[in-house]
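Private note to self, pasted from the team thread so I don't lose it. Backbone tokens:
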């Protein structure tokens, strides 16, 4: 069945798909978005507030150097009106091509898991994007969140991989208790288009269990040997913005303290995946 969708590309002032000095191709950024979430699915539910989050994050990424990211694909799955964020992108000065895609892909039960909707979104967006080629690398971020050290993560990444992500084997909970609970951090990771298609494409619709970060941890661990998987970032991603589920700020209070602990452990005890 054909799915109706909105698509619009805003051209930057001087977009050039160039290479890093070490020969790597400059990656694209994929921002995932749900402006109007299902009722009672998240604490941060107001569409106007969420749209403001997306605008703020997009402005931040547009200001990054063209040598860090040179294209942005913004994929939205609640078929919400994107006119104001498109107009904003057209009026501010930047050097990137930005592609907006919106469709209705959030009509499933929340019981299927948050990752179900996100990977359905990614499948559809990557299939319909005109900015991504088969040999591209992209970085995926939760669209409302700013990754303040994205440039560091990109510049410290290896030159060749199919998936670069953070797998965690210990859940560091809100009460600061540690428990054995393997999961994949879905807020930020990077894939080759080949890696995404082999690891994740279509899988949301085939899982017989809840499709979530724990399930995806085991998908990655069981990945084919010919894929180049790097299961840990060398640096701790620094997130700024609000969690949708709990409406807690990532860079304040207990969330900030967790970031500091994780950053320290990553440097001192890199074998401890928290």
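Design output:
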């Amino acid at each position: 069945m054909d799915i109706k969708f909105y698509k619009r590309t805003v051209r930057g002032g001087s977009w050039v798909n160039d290479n890093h000095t070490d020969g790597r191709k400059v990656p694209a950024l994929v921002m995932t978005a749900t402006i109007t979430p299902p009722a009672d699915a998240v604490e941060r539910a107001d569409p106007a507030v969420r749209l403001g989050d997306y605008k703020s994050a997009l402005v931040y990424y547009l200001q990054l150097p063209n040598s860090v990211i040179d294209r942005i694909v913004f994929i939205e799955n609640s078929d919400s009106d994107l006119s104001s964020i498109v107009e904003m992108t057209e009026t501010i000065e930047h050097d990137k091509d930005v592609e907006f895609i919106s469709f209705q892909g959030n009509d499933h039960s929340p019981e299927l898991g948050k990752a179900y909707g996100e990977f359905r979104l990614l499948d559809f967006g990557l299939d319909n994007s005109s900015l991504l080629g088969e040999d591209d690398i992209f970085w995926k971020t939760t669209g409302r969140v700013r990754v303040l050290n994205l440039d560091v993560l990109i510049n410290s990444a290896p030159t060749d991989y199919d998936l670069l992500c953070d797998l965690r084997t210990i859940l560091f909970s809100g009460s600061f208790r540690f428990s054995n609970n393997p999961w994949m951090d879905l807020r930020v990771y990077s894939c080759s288009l080949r890696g995404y298609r082999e690891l994740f494409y279509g899988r949301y619709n085939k899982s017989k269990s809840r499709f979530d970060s724990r399930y995806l941890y085991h998908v990655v661990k069981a990945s084919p040997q010919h894929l180049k998987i790097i299961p840990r970032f060398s640096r701790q991603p620094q997130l700024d913005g609000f969690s949708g589920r709990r409406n807690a700020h990532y860079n304040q209070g207990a969330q900030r303290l967790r970031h500091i602990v994780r950053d320290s452990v990553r440097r001192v005890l890199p074998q401890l995946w928290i």
